[in-house]
Amino acid sequence: MIDLRNLSFDELEALLTSYGQPAFRVKQLFAWLHDKQITALDQAHNVSQALIDQLQADGYTIELATCLKRQVSKDGTEKYLLGLGDGQLIECVLMKYRGDYSKQRNTLCVSSQVGCAMGCSFCATGTLGFHRQLTVAEILGQVYGTNALLKAEGEPMQVRNLVFMGMGEPFANFDTVIKAIDILCDKRGADMARRRMTISTCGLVPEIKRFADLQTDIGLAISLHASNDETRRRLMPVAKSYPLDQLIEACHYYCDKTGRRISFEYALIAGINDGNKEVDELARLVKGLDCHFNIIPVNPVSGKDFVRPDMRASRAFQNKLVAKGLAASIREEKGADIDGACGQLKANHLAAPE
Ligand code: SF4
């Protein structure tokens, strides 16, 4: 079976043209799939039953993920454990920002792979290993499924912002992630905005340059987490392939090509990367780079003995970076009372399925 939502507008057009369908039918069906976000082909009311029968006979369908577990935090953050058609599990996280009307938004943290091959030592997903790539439809399905849930519960706002920070390394599934974004931003469908999306990478240098060459409005976040190669190799095996000098050179390439600022994610770990030495090294490393540091006090991961610095220590680290002339903030914590970091919901489910 082929999920029709894997097809771009042009691909859908080629398919329907091969069936002898008129051009307006392509627009209709694309809008049903991506604007109305139907969950079954027979919901496309103004599309003839003959066409739906033909599509189904050729193996086209809409394959929905099943929500196996939903956790709701006191702050409104929701985490979903989703079962895919082949039984694989992924997670996505909905963060609701309320308060001032102008700042209200729903941000969804989506997965791009089942598991992850990158093996970062502070990450629950990394400990689960890599299983397979997600398809375009499986990425879109996380957004559309969340929209359906919001609508069913009377929430007026849909998902408006996306961060590719869930399970997996998005740049290790580069073409699929970019195609999914292109479909999500197609005005004839969901009409989302690239400037409200961010891709987070652990630092795959060739893909950072490839992404820069696309010159899109999509934001780029890089998981830095260390100020020197020795610590970075300890935390992130990817650093063995791409040391910091290559990574920073790719960051300059990105900034020069796009004119955009880079976000550096920095998981702060007590006694490992939170000292004055690290502050000095970071200041030297990113000199001349338009960047911002997102400090994330590390989440506890079972089986690891990383210590999360308290808020006072985190603020002190932030202030030292600011004193060096760097832009730095501490990431607002969402969903602290439910399974914390990405991969934890799946890891806990596998350990003790309900
Ligand atoms: S932090 Fe990201 S890149 Fe690293 S193992 Fe986890 S999911 Fe993979």
Automatic annotation (TrEMBL):
GO terms for biological process: methylation. InterPro entries: Aldolase_TIM, Methyltransferase_A, RlmN_N, RNA_MTrfase_RlmN, rRNA_lsu_MTrfase_RlmN/Cfr, rSAM, rSAM_sf. It catalyses: adenosine(37) in tRNA + 2 reduced [2Fe-2S]-[ferredoxin] + 2 S-adenosyl-L-methionine = 2-methyladenosine(37) in tRNA + 5'-deoxyadenosine + L-methionine + 2 oxidized [2Fe-2S]-[ferredoxin] + S-adenosyl-L-homocysteine; adenosine(2503) in 23S rRNA + 2 reduced [2Fe-2S]-[ferredoxin] + 2 S-adenosyl-L-methionine = 2-methyladenosine(2503) in 23S rRNA + 5'-deoxyadenosine + L-methionine + 2 oxidized [2Fe-2S]-[ferredoxin] + S-adenosyl-L-homocysteine. It is an enzyme of class 2 (transferase). CDD domains: Radical_SAM. Specifically methylates position 2 of adenine 2503 in 23S rRNA and position 2 of adenine 37 in tRNAs. This is Probable dual-specificity RNA methyltransferase RlmN.
